[in-house]
Amino acid sequence: MPRSALELSDLHMEGLYVLDVAGRIESRTDPDAPAPPFHLVRTAEGDRWLLRAGLPDELNRSLEAAAGGAGFERTLAKLDAVRDALREHVEPGDEWRGPAFAFPPTSFRSSLGPMGCCL
């Protein structure tokens, strides 16, 4: 069954993190990796973000204000606002960025006959 980009984002983050009852990051599912203070996933359908549990309420409000609204704006100014809010309360960490891919719900046919794939 095809899933939306936001559903896939939710599945991705649920696989990465253990969340508390408020939906904040308690830990990573990988015990050797520290939990980030903020995780943002951007899609064509909208955006999802998570905050780490135990951060000051003031920081949570600042991050939600910077990331919230009618969808996370695709501007560096918004990302700078998130970075600035984080720097006031936590040690800056690494930023990880990259593309995410989804396969279309249709199958591909080749004029060469049946095809196989080994992954």
Chain-wise SSE layout:
Layout: H1 5-16, E1 17-19, E2 25-28, E3 38-42, E4 47-51, H2 57-67, H3 76-87
Antiparallel strand pairs: 1-2, 3-4
| Percentage of residues in DSSP E strands | 5-15%
Q: Tell me the distance between the termini.
A: 21 Å
The major pleated sheet works out as: 2 strands, antiparallel
Shape: globular
Give the number of helices: 3
Strand order in the largest sheet: 1-2
Order of helices and strands: HEEEEHH
> What class would the helix/strand composition place it in?
alpha+beta
Give a count of the beta strands, DSSP E runs of length 2 or more. 4
* Low-confidence segments: 113-119
* Overall mean confidence score, pLDDT: 76
Structure description:
The chain is of the alpha+beta class and about 120 residues long. It has a domain at about 5-85. It is about 30% helix and about 15% strand. It has helices spanning about 5-15, 55-65, 75-85, and strands at about 15-20, 25-30, 40, 45-50. Helix 2 (about 55-65) packs antiparallel against helix 3. It starts with a helix and ends in a 32-residue tail after the last helix. The model is unreliable at about 115-119 (pLDDT under 50).
Summarize the structure.
By secondary structure, the protein is α+β, with helices and mostly antiparallel strands. Helices cover 29% and strands 14% of the residues. Mean pLDDT is 76; it is low at 113-119.
